[in-house]
Amino acid sequence: MVKVGVVGYGVIGLRLATGVSLQDDMELVGVADVGLTLPVRALLERGMPYDFYLAIPDNREKLEAAGVPISGTLEDLVQKCDVILDATSAGVGAKNKEIYAKYGKKAIFQGGESTEVADVFFHGYANYEEGLGKQFLKLTSCNTTGLIRAVDCLDRELGVENVMLTIVRRVADPGDYHRGLTNALKVDTVPSHQATDLMLIMPHIKATGVLVHTPVTHGHFISVNIKPKKSTTTEEVLRYFNEHPRIRVVRIADGFQGNAAIFRYARDLARPHSDMYDIAIFEETVTVFEGHVIFGLHVPQEAVVIPETVDGIRAVMEMSTDRLEAVQVTNKFLNMA
Ligand SMILES: NC(=O)c1ccc[n+]([C@@H]2O[C@H](COP(=O)([O-])OP(=O)(O)OC[C@H]3O[C@@H](n4cnc5c(N)ncnc54)[C@H](O)[C@@H]3O)[C@@H](O)[C@H]2O)c1
Fold first, then answer.
1. Is there a catalytic annotation at residue 153?
2. Do 72 and 199 fall within a single domain?
3. Which single residue of 89, 157, 280, 297 has CA 20 to 30 Å from 246?
4. CA distances from 162 to 15, 217, 267 (A)
């Protein structure tokens, strides 16, 4: 059993804890955070299914007064684990890395950390082998994770020469009051970091893209234009997407008109946190135009990085040296058909 700890029990951390606890070959030792946040209050109300470790000792009294049992400090948690999944606020992971290094532990950081924090910039499907046995990985961001799933799927079948994207980025997660009540679009400079990140993970592909922030919280939308090496057809592209376990092809005609419909459907599936780990590709947006493959995809930003992070545990612990075998075990335990 590989022992895993989650540091930073926020939007991503609480989902990583769920994802790890669903894996039969991993043990979730506990989770750590700094104080009595809403996810920690919810953990308490759920009867503390996970042990809680406190990263800031000064807050001990307040947590204990609220009834949160504290199993130890951040360093205590780190010492009990083989791998730490660091999902703290962007930039904190780089500081925590000193603790992980002090105890010789492996750690997987999330997209908000700088790429230099890790030995390998990691994606479970695109470069699993590069993560094998490494001490520190950094996951791609939510948009990049979803984008690379689709691009890698076509790259392995057709070869991809270049990619151009337009990203409509959700401006905040649900409940992020600190981002304000907004009604505006904000345009970023070209190229978006998702395009440059894709080239770091898949250096044989050229990519560029535009990103526009939009005041919604339920998912990003990416319009993708790919120049494949081999000519292809819409039917063939749809077949590849349909065969990919982490891609869900949805039909506008069935009522999947956009982000809100997908989130509502995910709630109706009654999975943990109402999450859907899949990216969704809208079938009616898939087309081949002048030799280019064009499609629109939805990225569930809170859930999409969970499977690839679990792949990261399999890579650093060398639980499987075969990429497809590894991702399939992750998929099985996360109930991704
Ligand atoms: N929210 C998303 O949609 C999303 C998607 C993919 C990746 N990410 C990345 O995941 C990481 C976490 O983002 P998030 O949205 O979950 O943030 P969040 O603010 O919801 O959660 C971060 C948690 O870390 C805790 N924390 C801060 N300092 C800490 C410390 N020293 N020790 C322990 N805990 C500490 C905070 O209290 C908070 O609960 C970031 O790198 C982010 O870029 C976020």
1. no
2. no
3. 89
4. 33, 29, 36
